[in-house]
Design a protein that fits this description.
It is a single chain. This protein has 2 domains: 206 residues, Endonuclease III, domain 1, CATH 1.10.340; 136 residues, Nucleoside Triphosphate Pyrophosphohydrolase (Alpha-Beta Complex), CATH 3.90.79. Helices cover 38% and strands 14% of the residues. The protein is α+β, with helices and mostly antiparallel strands. Strands 1, 2, 3, 5, 6 and 8 form a 6-stranded mixed beta sheet that branches. A two-stranded antiparallel sheet has the order 4-7. It is globular, with a radius of gyration of 23 Å. The longest helix has 18 residues. A hairpin with a 6-residue loop joins β1 and β2. It has 14 helices and 8 strands. The structure holds iron/sulfur cluster (SF4). The site of iron/sulfur cluster has 14 residues, from α9.
């Protein structure tokens, strides 16, 4: 049931209980070990619409390669995209890169401190500006991402199928409960609660530190899941091997045109020409989800000498080339190409995967 605003006493208790819970339960994530605004900025951009488990490895590699805003600004775009490979939504990487260049040109290479100034940078919205300003500089401004929205909607007793509460109302509620003495920690605690306890489908209310303040306690109505579309894709895998070594010297890939509407300039496997899959067994089947589409992908090995007949680009103007194995980790691969090449042990797996953590999307491997 929708409830009236919290009393001052409730707000004080809510803050202290949430912060105490966060102190005990916060996940140890690499971007939580720093107050460097640049590193927080990179992590917040990577985390938009992307799972934490997929970001950890990419973030670590990205920061190792571009440890400062200036080093990012001086990089060329292909190197930035190569480090972004697998995270998707590559426009984020391009915006991050161009904002870093602008900051070096016009602001001596440092990020502004206030949320209002940060908001003026290309690609920085309310959420990212509030996250950087509160976490790095202690500005008392609430962060409202999807997780926080869900927690607040439930705390306020609003059903999720009724007309969504307006963004303004949620922002007001978020700023009302925000702990102004520890805004960065409080914002992270709210996001953590949404990500690990107040889950979209089945919230873990018995473990929730805010249960006594909650207007729904798991009795909320749930939004219907989005309808997923399906698409089948057959890829061709052609490799040239060095005599006797058994290691692929080069893999045939296609670079999307620089003016393609999606993932311009990214490298991917060529499509297998129609009908060529008949009487062949794929070397890999994999499912890959992008926004509302499940791609059911089969990869077929073909002889290098047949590549002109069997492999082609989906994108008009796509450029085919043999990419040496050693260069694969240096070029901007699409997330799907990266996943396939790792599963086939053509591209080395990141350290985290070798140590036994799941490959992002590994649950989707069908064969
Ligand atoms: S009690 Fe349940 S529904 Fe309410 S905020 Fe906590 S986890 Fe979410």
């Amino acid at each position: 049931m929708e409830q009236a605003a919290f009393t001052d006493q409730q707000v004080r208790s809510l803050r202290s209980q949430l912060l105490a819970w966060f102190e005990r339960n916060a996940r140890d994530l690499p971007w939580r070990r720093t107050h460097d605004p640049y590193r927080i900025w990179v992590s917040e951009v990577m985390l938009q619409q992307t799972r934490v488990t997929a970001v950890i490895d990419r973030y670590t590699q990205f920061i190792r390669r571009f440890p400062s805003l200036v080093s990012l600004a001086l990089a060329n775009e292909d190197d930035v995209l190569a480090l972004w490979s697998g995270l998707g939504y590559y426009k984020r990487a391009r915006m991050l890169h161009s904002a870093a260049q602008l900051l070096v040109r016009e602001h001596c290479g440092s990020l502004p401190k206030s949320a209002v100034e940060l908001r003026r940078l290309p690609g920085v919205g309310d959420y990212t500006a509030a996250a950087i300003a509160s976490i790095a500089h202690g500005e008392p401004i609430a962060v409202v991402d999807g997780n926080v929205e869900r927690v607040l909607t439930r705390l306020l007793g609003l059903g999720e199928t009724m007309r969504s509460p307006t963004a303004t109302r949620l922002k007001e509620a978020a700023n009302r409960v925000l702990d102004r003495h520890a805004p960065g920690l409080f914002n992270q605690a709210m996001m953590e609660l949404g990500a690990t306890v107040c889950l979209p489908r089945v919230p873990l209310c018995a473990q929730c530190p805010l249960q006594e303040f909650c207007g729904t306690r798991g009795e909320h109505t749930v939004r219907r899941g989005k309808q997923m579309l399906s698409r089948k894709i057959n890829y061709a895998l052609a490799q040239k091997t060095l005599g006797g070594s058994g290691n692929p010297a080069a893999v045939l890939l296609v670079q999307r045109p620089k003016d393609a509407s999606q993932m311009p300039g990214m490298w991917e496997l060529p499509l297998l020409a129609a009908g060529c899959e008949a009487e062949r067994e794929p070397v890999l089947r994999v499912r890959h989800s992008i926004t509302n589409t499940n791609y059911y992908v089969a990869v077929f090995a073909i002889d290098a000498k047949d590549s002109l007949n069997f492999a082609h680009s989906e994108q008009p103007g796509g450029r085919q080339d043999w990419v040496p194995g050693k260069k694969l980790s240096e070029i901007p691969l699409t997330g799907l190409a990266r996943k396939v090449l790792m599963r086939l042990d053509i591209l080395p797996k990141p350290k985290e995967v070798r140590r036994g953590k799941a490959l992002p999307g590994a649950e989707d491997i069908l064969m």
